[in-house]
């Protein structure tokens, strides 16, 4: 006796394994509520805080530029490696405003571009206008 199998089309077979959402739009509504609870107004920095941050950025930029120059010279073997330590980019702690949320990032200052007014800590790009504070190292204030 031969059995006949009703073969389900592949497109239908895949649907039976999709996650089930009992209430449509619930996930999106929860995300919106969560975002609104976390949102805070952009802090307004005092003139003193802005000046302090500008000074810190200037010092970090000079250090960043010097490291880039030394690395370029090493790549072109203009400097001797014997007894010389490998230059390293500065470590920073940055507090910044991101879409209604204050965030903090610690890591290597991998890019600082005064022309585009941005900096990058590890892989996070931050506009100068979003900066709340920046400190060299992990000195959290």
User: What spatial order of strands do you see in the largest sheet?
Assistant: 4-3-2-1-5
Our Rg estimate from Cα atoms comes to: 26 Å
- Overall average pLDDT: 81
- The percentage helix is 25-40%
Identify the CATH class of the domain at 47-136.
Mainly Beta
Which structural class best describes the helix and strand composition? alpha+beta
Strands, total number? 5
The helix/strand series, from N terminus to C terminus, equals: HHHEEEEE
Structure summary:
With about 140 residues, this protein is of the alpha+beta class.
Fold and architecture overview:
The protein is built from three helices and five strands. A five-stranded antiparallel β-sheet has the order 4-3-2-1-5, with helices on one face. The termini are far apart. With 141 residues, it is an alpha+beta fold. It is flat and about 75 Å long. It has a domain of 90 residues: SH3 type barrels, CATH 2.30.30.
Task: Break the fold down into its secondary structure elements and pairings.
Elements: H1 10-15, H2 26-38, H3 47-75, E1 91-98, E2 101-113, E3 118-121, E4 124-127, E5 131-136
Antiparallel strand pairs: 1-2, 1-5, 2-3, 3-4
Q: What characteristics describe this protein?
A:
alpha+beta, five-stranded antiparallel sheet, single chain, 141 residues, SH3 type barrels, 3 helices, 5 strands, 34% helix
């Amino acid at each position: 006796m031969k059995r006949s199998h009703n073969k389900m089309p592949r497109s239908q077979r895949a649907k039976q394994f999709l996650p089930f959402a009992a209430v449509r739009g619930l996930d999106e509504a929860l995300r919106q509520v969560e975002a609104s609870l976390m949102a805070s107004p952009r802090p307004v920095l005092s003139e003193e805080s802005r000046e302090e941050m500008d000074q810190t950025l200037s010092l970090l930029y000079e250090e960043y530029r010097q490291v880039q120059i030394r690395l370029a010279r090493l790549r072109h073997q203009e400097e001797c490696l014997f007894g010389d330590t490998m230059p390293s980019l500065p470590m920073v702690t940055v507090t910044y405003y991101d879409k209604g949320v204050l965030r903090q990032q610690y890591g290597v200052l991998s890019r600082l571009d005064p022309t585009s007014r941005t900096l990058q800590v590890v892989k996070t790009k931050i506009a100068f206008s979003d900066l709340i504070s920046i400190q060299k190292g992990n000195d959290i204030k």
